[in-house]
Recover the amino acids of this structure.
């Protein structure tokens, strides 16, 4: 896999894209389609979650099948903050990131001793443990999850309005993407990608391979936690379903169909998958079959992901 | 208490043997072909549906079991020839994506054909009652059907062991798991061998699904939960090792069953009731994952690494 490099057309395209996203709520409202603002928020949140996995998977080369644990940890952390009387997102969201990051530190410190398939399975095992812990924690609602008592406020502004939550999610998403893009081009990102390509060589050159990997894993976990906190605000519930292994699988699928290791792979994947879901649900009750067949087609005909179809590879 | 422990130990043995049937196919597909098959659980589900449908149509459990296993083998053959053959050479991520797609397709197809309600699968009439077993001069009742499952599991497990460890085909399979290129260079048709192993794995899935059908519900989604357990088994045992799969399956089966049955009681003796009632079920559910993490921590390749 080649090193990440921003294409020359990327900047103008992104600025256009960003302006379109900023104008979206106003446009949707003027066409009487305000219902879709909630959907757009969901897409942004999952784009953030998938991108955080892409940092781990695409840039770090670590196939984690337990990323949903961090999403869920963030959601629960936000709900628990509210239960404790903290209704300010500026405090609760960083707390959610810290909680998810801490969990990622614990999981990563143990899992990163293993390689390949064993790493996939041990991350899955930890996610399952987290899932069962939350399911049986009666103080936090057990099976039913922990409901939020209305949405939180952001810097004093209540997020109960769909547009406000959309803009908060948009800001979080933009900030994360700018950071990921910066990291990918910086020393840290270059080293991380070099470790992905040839671990032994980097170790021989004296790089602390384990620490670089762990840092990427923790960063990915923390931003998944942010996505989880946003998601809890959107749906009004921190549910154990968020931690199910199929959720980890869905995030993985998003990154793979978007394009592993492309900065915007996670974003493209989240948009494609959620749009497909949303449009297929209306067509037939059995939309899972069509989605499954489409995914199979992507594996067989676009093995590098959708993002790669539009992008020349850089050496 | 002795009765409870004995009964749960037998249940654990029975569950472990069924897990072994699933894990055996999975570990071979994984070990030899280096292919992550998340849809292995779907083969188990579809197999159970085949058995249940055939048993209803023929009004006989045993005919249904035979027909269902044969049907699953045919399905496995079709899948291998049409899809999996193309996946072996691809990276793990493509395999995860493709087999994840298969799970979606299988679940929805089953829902379309048989509806969302679970199917009923009754054990054979003659085996529906309990049998008396001697226990230190006392007697002890255990369901006859569960005993038959244990016998089946031991029989198939023994046969599988002979096949893999003592036969020529088994030797090729083990050689393929240890070093694929070398095996091919020695003139073994690895492609045909792969197909055979995959079909065999599918048949074992259906056998486990059919046998467990009367005990657990035959329903959509039954494959996913057991798939994770099967993966835990082969990771503990070491990928590609049949012996590892057997040991891992028995460990997971007994630890999971005994943990669920005994842990809450044990904790209640040691902790205040409130803490015990919260911690008990949680600890029982995560026990096998803790075990797996611990084993991987000390033996990152599993208990019986195939590529030692």
């Amino acid at each position: 896999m080649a090193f990440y490099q921003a294409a020359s057309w990327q900047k103008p395209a992104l600025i256009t894209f960003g302006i379109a996203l900023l104008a979206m709520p106003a446009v949707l409202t003027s066409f009487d389609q305000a219902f879709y603002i909630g959907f757009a928020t969901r897409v942004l949140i999952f784009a953030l979650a998938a991108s955080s996995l892409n940092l781990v998977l695409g840039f770090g080369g670590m196939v984690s099948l337990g990323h949903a644990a961090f999403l869920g940890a963030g959601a629960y952390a936000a709900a628990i903050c509210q239960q404790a009387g903290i209704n300010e997102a500026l405090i609760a969201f960083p707390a959610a990131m810290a909680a998810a990051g801490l969990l990622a530190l614990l999981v990563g410190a143990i899992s990163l001793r293993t390689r390949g398939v064993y790493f996939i399975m041990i991350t899955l095992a930890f996610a399952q443990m987290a899932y069962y812990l939350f399911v049986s924690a009666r103080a936090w609602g057990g099976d039913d999850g922990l409901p939020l008592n209305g949405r939180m406020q952001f810097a004093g502004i209540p997020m109960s309005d769909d547009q406000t939550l959309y803009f908060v999610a948009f800001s979080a998403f933009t900030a994360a993407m700018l950071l990921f893009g910066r990291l990918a081009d910086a020393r840290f990102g270059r080293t991380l990608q070099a470790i992905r390509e040839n671990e032994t060589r980097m170790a021989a050159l004296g790089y602390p391979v384990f620490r670089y990997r762990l840092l990427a894993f923790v960063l990915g976990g923390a931003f998944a936690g942010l996505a989880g906190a946003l998601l809890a605000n959107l749906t009004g519930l921190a549910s154990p379903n968020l931690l199910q292994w199929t959720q980890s699988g869905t995030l993985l699928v998003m990154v793979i169909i978007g394009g592993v290791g492309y900065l915007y792979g996670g974003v493209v994947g989240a948009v494609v998958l959620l749009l497909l879901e949303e449009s297929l649900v209306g067509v037939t009750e059995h939309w899972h079959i069509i989605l499954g067949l489409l995914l199979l087609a992507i594996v067989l005909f676009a093995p590098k992901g959708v993002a790669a179809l539009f992008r020349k590879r850089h050496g | 208490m002795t009765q409870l422990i004995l009964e749960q130990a037998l249940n654990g043995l029975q569950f472990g043997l069924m897990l072994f049937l699933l894990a055996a196919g999975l570990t071979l597909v994984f070990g030899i072909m280096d292919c992550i098959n998340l849809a292995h659980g779907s083969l188990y589900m579809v197999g159970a549906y085949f058995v249940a449908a055939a048993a209803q149509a023929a009004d006989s459990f045993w005919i249904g079991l035979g027909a269902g296993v044969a049907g699953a083998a045919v399905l496995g053959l079709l899948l291998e020839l049409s899809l999996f053959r193309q996946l072996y050479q691809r990276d793990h991520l493509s395999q995860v994506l493709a087999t994840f797609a298969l799970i979606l397709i299988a679940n929805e197809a089953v829902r379309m054909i048989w509806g969302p309600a679970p199917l009923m699968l009754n054990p054979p009439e003659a085996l529906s009652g309990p049998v008396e077993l001697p226990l230190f001069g006392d007697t002890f009742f255990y369901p006859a059907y569960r005993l038959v499952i244990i016998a089946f599991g031991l029989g198939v497990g023994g046969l599988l062991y002979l096949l893999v460890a003592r036969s020529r085909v088994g030797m090729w399979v083990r050689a393929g798991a240890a070093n694929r290129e070398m095996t091919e260079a020695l003139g073994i048709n690895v492609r045909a061998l792969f197909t055979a192993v995959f079909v065999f794995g599918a048949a074992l899935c259906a056998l486990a699904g059919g046998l467990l059908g009367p005990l657990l519900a035959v329903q959509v989604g039954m494959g996913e939960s057991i798939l994770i357990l099967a993966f835990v088994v082969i990771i503990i045992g070491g990928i590609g090792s049949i012996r590892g799969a057997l040991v891992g399956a028995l460990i997971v089966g007994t630890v999971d069953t005994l943990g669920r049955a005994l842990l809450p009681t044990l904790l209640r003796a040691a902790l205040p009731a409130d803490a015990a009632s919260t911690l008990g079920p949680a600890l029982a559910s995560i026990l096998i994952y803790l075990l797996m993490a611990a084993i991987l921590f000390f033996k990152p390749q599993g208990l019986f690494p195939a590529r030692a």
